[in-house]
Amino acid sequence: MRMRNRTRTPSSTARRRRCSRYHIRGGKAGTVARFTGSLPGYPDNIRYDGEGRYWIALSAGRTLEWDVLMRWPFVRKLVYMVDTYVVSVPQNLRYAGAMSVTLDGEPVTMYTDRGLAHATGWLKVGDYLYYGSLTSSYISRIDLTKSSIEA
């Protein structure tokens, strides 16, 4: 986050599907507060765009299967091993994508598509949103003037 006189910074917690705000300076220094509530997917990275919004990468959508995997790391490890060495495990890609929120954590827009699965980072440049993925070896972009789901 590049803001003058920065007093706090947001961070994501994928397992709980929310983002928190860590206070750096001031009377609340060293404390953590809720930044966003229950997200429609699992957050990966947060980036400030310099224009009053944070962009949150959602690498996967929420399902019962993902909730179980996030709750028990041992089960998550077993599924990873099965997926890697035995057979591909289907993943819910609904709600994978990006979500923009205000400086106070209020939702503004949502960009979601099955093709945005495993998105790990977003960077807004002009009217485009660039993103990387955990599973792709290239960077892609979305034209922000064409579509979004307004909150």
UniProtKB/TrEMBL annotation:
One Gene Ontology molecular-function label: hydrolase activity
Signal peptide boundaries: none
Superkingdom of the source species: Eukaryota
One term under GO cellular component: endomembrane system
InterPro entries: 6-blade_b-propeller_TolB-like
PANTHER family: ADIPOCYTE PLASMA MEMBRANE-ASSOCIATED PROTEIN HEMOMUCIN-RELATED, STRICTOSIDINE SYNTHASE-RELATED
Protein name: Strictosidine synthase conserved region domain-containing protein
